[in-house]
């Protein structure tokens, strides 16, 4: 199945999830996240879940990182909706946040972090396949961003669902995942 059809199908699957189910699945994903080796990690790029979109609640991960791994710095993106690019801002308890025109909560200002400083990037997605290809909302923000990261930065998707067999129209411009965390486990992908 191609990206457009998969995007439509998985947007609908997420819409059908109830609030309690999203909370339970998000808790399971957060617990799985902490199975990753984090002792040598300095920077984790995360995303703030979009209200009303039934996204994985990454705030559970962020809160535990602040408590149990205070040495790890967290980073959030700030969108340039004109150019479809992202800048990356250090996110701590003093970082001012606001909702942008697309309903995404992001930093208003702060200390910029370069993509090459990131050790792990948590990636929002709708669906992924058994090769690590992924489908997001279709604007290409993350592909442009991920192409700027170090090759050894771990690109980790978060999904309520298991992988599909194949995204038929994935191409060389798509940056694949290194891993994807679902409630049932961590899927890793060979390069």
Task: Explain the overall architecture.
- The protein is of the alpha/beta class and 191 residues long.
- It has 4 helices and 11 strands.
- It has helices spanning 3-15, 19-33, 59-68, 141-146, and strands spanning 43-45, 73-80, 85-91, 97-99, 105-107, 120-124, 127-128, 134-135, 154-158, 179-182, 185-188.
- Strands 3-2-1-6-9-10-11 form a 7-stranded mixed beta sheet. It has a two-stranded antiparallel ribbon with strand order 4-5. A two-stranded antiparallel sheet has the order 7-8.
- The longest helix has 15 residues, at 19-33.
- It is globular and about 45 Å long.
- The chain starts with a helix and ends with a strand.
- 33% of the residues are buried.
The helix/strand series, from N terminus to C terminus, equals: HHEHEEEEEEEHEEE
Mean pLDDT: 93
Structural class: alpha/beta
Through-space gap between termini: 22 Å
- The share of residues in helices is 10-25%
From the alpha carbons, calculate the radius of gyration and give it in angstroms: 16 Å
DSSP strand content: 15-25%
Number of helices: 4
Number-wise, the strands total 11
Unreliable residue stretches: none
Question: What's the quaternary structure here?
Answer: single chain
> How would a textbook summarize the main sheet?
7 strands, mixed
Q: Walk across the major sheet and give the strand order.
A: 3-2-1-6-9-10-11
